[in-house]
Amino acid sequence: MGNMNTKQKIVFIGMFAIMIATITYYFFTNEQKEYETINESDIVYQENYEGEKDIIVHITGSIAEEGIVKLKEGDRIADAIEKAGGVTADANIKNVNLAYKLKDGQKIYIPSNIDDSENIAIVSSKGEGVISDNGKKGDKVNINEATQTELETLPGIGPSMAAKILEYREKNGEFNSIEDIKNVTGIGNSKYETIKDNICVD
Hints:
39% of the residues lie in helices and 15% in strands. The protein has helices at 6-51, 77-83, 148-151, 159-172, 189-195, and strands at 54-61, 67-72, 107-110, 121-123, 130-132, 136-137, 140-142, 199-200. Strands 2-1-3-4-5 form a 5-stranded mixed β-sheet, with helices on one face. β4 and β5 (130-132) form a beta hairpin. The N and C termini lie far apart (89 Å).
């Protein structure tokens, strides 16, 4: 630099400063992106982890170990049976809906070959309201669990209306009361009066 005049020195220093600034910006930007990506990943993981809720059910009947089992929200009867050590040799599960989605506080009974009952019984947390595996509560249709075919057994409910009930349930979640079925398009007071004695929600 001893042979440079003042103007050349200024140009050289300016170029050097620009180079340093460019390098600094490049490393800072990449480091910031990496930091943000890690943080976002951590948040997603935490939400998924914390979103899992435990439920407790009581399982009895023809299984290896009767008692209380802890499951995850959304688990099925098949999961409860597995947690209870599986079914016994005399179990009769041909009428058991193994895909039935369980709720906290329910009691499940797995029948044996000598049982008179044809259906599995699921008792609500209140200890009342027996629900069978076919979506019915006694002779009533559980509108929160019933299939298209089961809904069509209700008076005045055909395939189109049954599909609307299922669509409403899919979009809005379970019915809190039987009166809520009137929120389904096409079910007014008249149709509700016709079916109210044949439906239940739990």
